[in-house]
Structure formats: C-alpha cells, structure tokens
Amino acid sequence: MDYAGASEALSAEAIEHLKNSPPCFHYLNGTMVGTQGDDTLVVSFPVKKEYCNPAGSMQGGFVTAAFDNVFGPLSHLVFKTLTTTVNINTNYHRPIFPGDTLTIKAWAQTRGRTLTHMLGEAYNSEGKLVASADCHYMTLPSRE
User: According to a count of CB atoms within 10 Å of the terminal CB, is the N or C end of the chain lower?
Assistant: First the structure.
C-alpha cells in the first residue's frame, strides 16, 4: 500500500474531528494514520474476533462500516460541514482475520457544491488489497 505523501501529523481539522468522532468510530477502534492534502485520509482498524463471521474472517458489514468511518471524516474535511451518506458500495477481494489490521485509504474523486464522490481501498498488514469501495456524500442544510 502506498502512503507516499501521507503526513505524519494530522491536520488540525482531522484532529478536531477525531475529538468529536461518533461512538461507531470508537467501537471499531479506529486510529487516524494521516492525511494527504485536504482530500485523502488514512485510518486503520484492528480486526477483532467480535467483528468476525462464522468463517472466522471480518464480516463484510464491519468492513463496510470501517469504510463509512473513513468516508465520513473525509467528507467533513472536504465540505467543512455536516454531511450524510447517499450510498456506499463495497467490493471484497480477500478475507482478513483477527489479529490483523485493516488500513483504509480514502480520497475525494470528484467534488460538487453539495455532493462528492469518494473512493477507498482497504489493505491488510501485508499490503494486500482486502476490499475497495466508493460512495457519495451530500452536505446537509444548516440547522441554524
């Protein structure tokens, strides 16, 4: 997996978002690894036994939840406001097992005034592609 250009230090915005991250981010034990500019975010998640299916690998819904826990903060960094998921599509390439780490790199592909299309790739600790995903996020109207 290529982290070339990923900053060692997180941006101030990423740090602020981490302080306010939702319980679902904490449930999956996400750790922000770094950013690349204002349109790429890298986050890692430990693969725990309680995230696994009967075959012993991380259940697909948890993999998709991990993607959603990267796309959400990334959409906040892109739009600088509240957003919501419009759709998310995940393709699975290989299983990942407890004790491993799922690292997701996500980036904004195209940005509009209210909608952005993002792509992501998830890798195991050996750098092998586990899953890929794409989604659309939309800005929400201000509640003020």
Answer: C
